[in-house]
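Methods: example folding runs. The two proteins below were folded one after another, and each record is reproduced exactly as written to the output file, sequence line first and structure-token line second.
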Amino acid sequence: MEDDIVQKIQSNPTYQRLVTTRSSYGWTLTAIMMVVYYGFILLIAFKKELLAAKMGGGVMTWGMPVGLFVIVFTVVITGIYVRRANSEFDEMTAAIRKEVL
């Protein structure tokens, strides 16, 4: 009985579209996040003096706002994924549930 439901869900075109869309969207956001994160790590490794340079006449260095940007970017990109997941992906899941069950 459960195998029958699994077969129905897997053969549903909405489910296949959901899996494809969600996977490509997730991997795209992951790639963007990795570029930002590893870019920051590479800056630390190879351009330490750039991040250690002081901004203006104060004591703040460029590393602080760049590091803060990485943290804020992580929160924003997570919010973007959650917003789409809670709207489009949840609607597709509800449609699949309605069609199959």
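Second run, written to the same file directly after the first:
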Amino acid sequence: MSGVTGRSSPGALRSDDLDRPSSSLDLRPDLKLIVDLVPEKSRVLDIGCGNGDLLFELQRVRNVDARGVELSMDGVYACVTRGLSVVQGDADADLVTYPAASFDVAILSHTLQAIFDPRGVIDHLVRIARYAIVSFSNFGYWKVRWSLLTTGRMPLIGTHDRNWWDTPNIRACTISDFVLLCRDMGISIDKMLIVNEHGRARIGHPGRAANILGEQAVFVLSRSPE
């Protein structure tokens, strides 16, 4: 995608854009998609930015005005070392302090499962930015279902070096769960991309197939008109 350029609609996404390489870093599949979704020179807030890989790439590729919020001090130090503008903060508690329409894009990548109030955080995302981009691992993915069925143990998504009692995933959800939450909150789903087990992404449509075959999901959200 050539990004949500300027103030144009993110509905300009084309299938062939997804095959265009945009990153030189070894980014997660969902982060590569997010880079392509962010418009040039936009104001971006990345909540739960970790070590700053996405912010660094957005500055390099998209020339954005990038800001980050990260809970761990190790992550904050890593970002500052790379010259990124990042503050230590908690998505559950601190987003309320950001004025409305402060950013063009607010990003929540693989952080949804680790926050206590996903509904409140999503509400703030579409308040402080024109578009929110949310990515997460899909606990409805067929391999997750199969693992639970055959082993009787909790599947660990993206946390292979941890156990069930110390995983950061406290709000596991599926694609279907997320779609229903957005519908209940009156939030528009402007775009949905699903990533399969081979890291390939396709423009998706909410439904049973996406919920079963999507290993990860990337949503572009906005506040529905009153």
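Comment on the second run: The helical segments are 29-37, 53-62, 73-81, 91-94, 118-128, 142-151, 175-185, 208-213.
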